[in-house]
Amino acid sequence: MTRLRGGAVAAAVVMAVSVAGCKGDPIGGTAGPGEKAHGGAALAAADSLTVKGRAPKTGYSRARFGSAWADTDSNSCDTRDDILKRDLEQVRFTDGDCKVSYGVLKPDPYSGKTITYRRGRSQVDIDHLVALSDAWQKGAKYWEPSKRIALANDPLNLLAVDAGANRGKGDGDTATWLPPDKDYRCDYVAAQVAVKKKYGLWVTAAEKTAMKKVLATCPDQKLPTGGNPTNAPERFKAR
Predict the structure, then answer these.
(1) pTM across the whole model
(2) Residue 200: in which H helix or E strand, if any?
């Protein structure tokens, strides 16, 4: 089932995602994994993902994906605040309309709880649905830096969630972690499939089996679309 949340309801309709691994075509808007999709079925997309073994984590660091929350869409707000604005309700700002100082996550997609966000003492994290270290081990270590930066800041791969649940997830994939709220699992897995398909990341055999098991319970689940181009602007650098 697709469960839209406050920020996603108000978001603009987005254009279809670019083909995985291609040069970044402009894809307007700040689309998120909670939005209804216009693409193909998520189950069919999961079945199409390439299966390989997990590569070594050797060489991984967060710096390989650029500075945290880079403004790759050039809207003068950092990516973290963009996602807070999209996903929270009752949003308040400090100094203009970028820096989110307060909001309500209602509901948190992972736990189903209502969580209040206050800047500086927040119980809200921005989760990379496909964890960056997981991506590193499934293809991203071989990419150009601009593509890694794009993945780290793509709204399609980002979601405001309960901090405790996010930290419990760590860098797990579908085979090792699913949201405690079972009602959100189809949306969650569909979003991971969408990100891996868009960027050309592979999956392990266990991961693909787990994705298909979840999506078999919701065979009409659509694939989320939108987000940013798959290459960041040249001014952004990563190690």
Answers:
(1) 0.85
(2) none
